[in-house]
Amino acid sequence: MNKSPAIGAATLALLAGAAQPSAARADSWSAWSAAWAASPQAPATGFTPNWSQEGFSRQSVRQVVRVTQGGDRIRIRLSNAYGTSPLVVTGATVARTGAGAALRPHSVRELTFGGRRSVSIPAHGELRSDAAWLTVDRLDPVTVTLYFAGTTGPATFHAQGFTDTYRAEGDHRADVSGGAFGASSQSWYYLSGVEVGGRSTGDGIALLGDSITDGFGSTPGTNRRYSDALAERTGRPVVNAGIGGNLVLNDSAWYGERATARFGRDVLDQPGVGTVVVLEGLNDIGFSEARKGPVPQPTYVPAPVVSSAELIAGYRELIRQAHGRGLTAVGATLLPFKGSDHWGAHAARVSDEVNDWIRTSGAFDAVVDFDKALASKSDPDRLAPAYDSGDALHPDDAGYRVMARALAEVL
Predict the structure, then answer these.
(1) Residue 134 and residue 221 in one domain
(2) Is residue 181 located within the same domain as residue 242?
(3) What is the C-alpha separation between 35 and 113, in angstroms, rounded?
(4) pTM of the model
(5) Are 399 and 354 in contact (CB under 8 A)?
C-alpha cells in the first residue's frame, strides 16, 4: 500500500503530458460554464456506509460525474462548507471515465490549486482548482479522484448521488485501473462542481429543488434524473441544485440550508447559468403531515405548518435574487402527491393555492406545469401510475422524462 502523499516523477510526467500548456495560461482564456454540480450538505447519520461522519484518512476517493457541456479544459469546485477545521487535500486528478472505477488510458491530468498540488481549504470555505487541459464532450462521464494523506474529520457531502463513488486505501489518484477501489457508496464527498472552458454560451440552466430534482426514484447509476433528461433533450448545460428533503423556508441538519439561503452558492455562483427553475415547497407543506402519519418519519423536520402566503413569499425572494443577477426565473408547479406520506387536508389545500399562484400571478418569467403533466387522468391529485416510482410522491424514469419534455417546451 502506497501511503506517500507524493506521486512519482515518472507518473507526474504521464499525468501532465509533454505538450500541455500551463494551468495559468489555461485559466486566462475564455469563460467557464458549470457542467455539473451537487449542492453541499452537512455530515449526517443514517447512511450506509456512513463516510460523511467517518471522513477519510490515508484514502483516495474516486467520484464519477457526467458533464452537460463540452470544452477543452476543466476545473473542479471543492466545498468544505460544513467542516469545522481546515480540509487538506493532498492531491487530485481528473480523467475520462472507464468502466466502474477505472480511467481511460492517457487521460489522467493532475489538478493544481494556485499552482500547488496540495491545498488547505478553510472551515466553511470552498475553492476552485486551476484549469487542466482535458477535452471532454457534452454528456461525457468524468472521474475526479481526491487523495487525503491526513485525517479529514466528518465530510461535507451530497447525500443522494444515485451514482457509485469509490474509495481505496492509500494513494491511488493516478491509477488507471480501478482495482484498488474496493469500497463504494452512492454519495458525493467535497466535490460540488465541475466546470469546463472553451465553449461558454451563457445559456446554462440551474434546477433548484428537493428530492424530485435530486432524482429520488430514478434508476441508480443510469443518469435518469430529470436534470439528465433535460440536458439530453435541450443540448444546454444543466446543473442540478436539488437536495433531498430540502425546504424553501426552513433549515435542516439533515436536508440542508433553506432554499432562500443557499440560492447564492448553489445557483448564482454557477458560471454560465442564465436560467433557474424553481421546484420546491412540497416538503414545507408536507413534512408536518408525514410526522403525523401511521409510520412517523423521525428525520423529517418538525417545521411549523406553512401557509400558501408564507411559501409564496419565499418564492418571491428567490425570484428577487434571480432577477438581481439577471437570471430568468421559471416557476414549476408542485407535483400531485395524493396517497403519499405528505398528503393531508392542509397540505392539499396549500398545494392548490400555491400552484394557482404560480400559474396566474405572472411573478415568474415562465411557468412549467408539472402538476398537470404528471397527473392521473382518473384522479388529478395523484401521480399517474405510469410515472409513479412507488411512493405516490416521486416520479420514476418515465416521469422524469415527461418533466424534461414539459420544461423544454417553455425554455
Answers:
(1) no
(2) no
(3) 19
(4) 0.91
(5) no
